[in-house]
Amino acid sequence: MNFNLWLRAAVCLAVASFPVSSYAADGLAAGVFLGSPMSGVTLKQNQFKIQAGIDKVGVAVDGTWNLGEWLGRMEYAPMYVYAGGQWVDDSTHQWGPRAGLGVTLPVGTGDVELFAEAGTTWYWEEEGDIEFEGAAGARVYF
User: Fold this and answer.
1) Phi and psi dihedrals of 72, rounded to 5?
2) Model confidence over 67-108: pLDDT tens digits?
3) Can you give the pTM of this predicted structure?
């Protein structure tokens, strides 16, 4: 069975298993994500997140800031910005700084969240490209 198919099935099962809640959890969270340039597992602790790629080996480490708190407008509370660095085992795009925008959707009693994010990575190897990348997945809080 294809790993990406298994990952998609796990995310869909998690989404279908829980009713929607009105608040998000804090603390340590772990989950899975699908994206470009890598798909894999993610860990999040308060304002910091780490994503490790499995299909294409790589690591991204980011700080996150909640837009609702940052702007003082709670209608933006489900949205966040992130900035950090990324390394991917790729012959032309290996490492560089990254930044972007994400959104979360709490599910169930607030201990599960769905997320989607999109942003750019400025790769400093060889060509020096700026690539638009994104990811979507689910996290469970402990």
Assistant:
1) 70, 25
2) 999 888 888 889 999 999 999 987 777 899 999 999 999 998
3) 0.77
Buried b (16+ CB within 10 A) or exposed e, 93-105: bebbebebebebe
Task: Calculate the dihedral angle through the C-alpha atoms of 65, 77, 116, 3, rounding to the nearest 10 degrees.
Answer: 90
Q: What is the pLDDT of residue 89?
A: 86
What 18-24 contacts at long range (C-beta under 8 Å, 24+ apart), as own/partner pairs, is: 18/107, 18/108, 18/109, 18/112, 19/107, 19/108, 20/105, 20/106, 20/107, 20/108, 21/106, 21/107, 21/108, 21/109, 21/110, 22/106, 23/106, 23/110, 24/78, 24/104, 24/106, 24/110, 24/113
